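Saturday, quiet lab. Running sequence design on the structure tokens for the scaffold JK sent over.
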């Protein structure tokens, strides 16, 4: 007998397209959102905080929820996050803390939201002896000593993802994601293509993960390297940057990506890549028919540099300290929310083709601003992108150009946060990871 769920109707391609069309906003309703991941470590040992420890993440969430009136997010009765209104605090696979904040018109509002949550959370963190590091990869402990949190999907993902650094990506890394709106399909397409071209330069500017497991890795962003070695089917660019892009282009990419699992009757069903979503829509799976919930999960299990939702998710920046986080938002807002700035950025990058960007993705993790694209140094292009964003923000009279100050202090000197760490590593720290940890704890406060 077929085991077909009746709660939700079978999804069609028209339904999927309508989902993205429903994300269209008016110019006056454009907002900026952020997802902000950090690495929890114990102050005394520098070890990553475990979920089950007496002073671990589960009990920390319980304490904070009680202090500030947040509701639990659970998976099979295990606490895996908290929610309050449109804001959430969730856990990534290795207990990384992620703030997902409701989108705001002004960057100052995002800054205020982060500060408000941090101010209440700080007492709990101090009592537990924990710091949330503003850093891109685990500085002391590697994935072999970091347990997965008790969330069904992470166990399935860890088993499925085949890249040699997929465990590093899941358990050790922390990043910052910027979310932006679009006003039409045409606007979404233009922003999507340009954002993909900006990502390698942004990854370079904000590189902040050169030391991992207590040793220098030879990469300025080991986090970015881990994404290159996670799963080529679902990571990287979701399009050929030389070709036209629209909602259907993106839908095709999601439909043709192998499926990891589906959720049915409150339990995950492991598909292990045996079919893609296109085949699922054609034939179903063991009596189940595809629903919009299934499609949203499938799209969420794709990890391109830029992900299309009912907004754009721009994903590949290392976690950095809070003033630099605001610089990330300011650059993207300055360029992608101003048509003149978009014209200027497109003109700056017009000579580069898809192959150039594909090669650059592999150069940036090691060399950051010293990488080259064709005959150009990435650092020189990064400086021009900051100037474009700054001019745009000043023209908008939104008083947000000031948030570029933090990144200008690095980029205009040809430096990244990783370069500052490496200078100290070979200098006053004398390759002593304990000294580095003390520095990271202090600048993450």
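Result came back. Writing it out in full:
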């Amino acid at each position: 007998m077929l085991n077909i769920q009746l709660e939700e109707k079978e999804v069609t391609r028209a339904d999927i397209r309508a989902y993205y069309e429903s994300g269209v906003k008016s110019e006056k309703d454009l907002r900026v959102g952020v997802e902000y991941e950090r690495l929890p470590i114990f102050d005394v040992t520098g070890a990553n905080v475990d979920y089950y420890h007496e002073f671990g993440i589960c009990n920390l969430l319980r304490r904070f929820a009680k202090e500030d009136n947040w509701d639990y997010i659970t998976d099979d009765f295990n606490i895996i996050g908290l929610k309050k209104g449109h804001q959430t605090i969730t856990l990534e696979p290795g207990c990384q803390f992620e703030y997902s904040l409701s989108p705001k018109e002004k960057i100052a509002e995002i800054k205020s939201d982060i500060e408000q949550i941090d101010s209440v959370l700080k007492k709990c963190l101090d009592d537990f002896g924990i710091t949330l590091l503003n850093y891109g990869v685990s500085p002391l402990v590697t994935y072999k000593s970091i347990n997965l949190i008790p969330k069904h999907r992470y166990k399935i993902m860890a088993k499925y993802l085949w890249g040699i650094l997929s465990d590093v990506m899941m358990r050790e890394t922390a990043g910052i994601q910027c979310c932006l709106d679009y006003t039409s399909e045409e606007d979404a397409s233009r922003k999507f293509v340009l954002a993909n071209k900006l990502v390698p330069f942004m990854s370079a500017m904000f590189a902040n993960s050169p030391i991992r497991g207590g040793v220098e890795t030879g990469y300025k962003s080991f986090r970015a390297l881990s994404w290159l070695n996670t799963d080529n089917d679902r990571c990287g660019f979701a399009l050929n940057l030389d070709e036209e892009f629209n909602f259907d282009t993106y839908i095709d990419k999601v439909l043709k990506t192998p499926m990891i699992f589906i959720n049915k009757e409150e339990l995950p069903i492991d598909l292990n890549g045996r079919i893609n979503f296109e085949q699922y829509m054609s034939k179903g799976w063991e009596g189940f028919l595809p629903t919009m919930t299934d499609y949203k999960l499938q799209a969420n299990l794709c990890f391109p540099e830029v992900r299309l939702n009912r907004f754009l998710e721009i994903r590949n920046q290392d976690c950095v300290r809070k003033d630099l986080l605001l610089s990330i938002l300011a650059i993207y807002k300055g360029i992608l929310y101003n048509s003149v700035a978009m014209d200027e950025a497109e003109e700056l990058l017009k000579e580069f083709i898809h192959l150039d960007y594909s090669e650059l993705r592999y150069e940036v993790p090691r060399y950051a601003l010293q990488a080259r694209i064709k005959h150009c140094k990435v650092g020189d292009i990064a400086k021009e992108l900051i100037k474009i964003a700054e001019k745009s923000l000043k023209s908008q009279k939104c008083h947000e150009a000031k948030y570029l100050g933090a990144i200008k202090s690095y980029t205009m000197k040809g430096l990244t946060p990783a370069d500052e760490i490496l200078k100290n590593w070979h200098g006053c720290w004398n390759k002593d990871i304990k000294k580095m940890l003390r520095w990271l704890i202090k600048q993450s406060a």
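Notes for JK: The CA atoms of residues 17 and 248 lie 7 Å apart. Confidence is low (pLDDT under 50) at residues 1-6. Ask whether to fix the surface positions before the next round.
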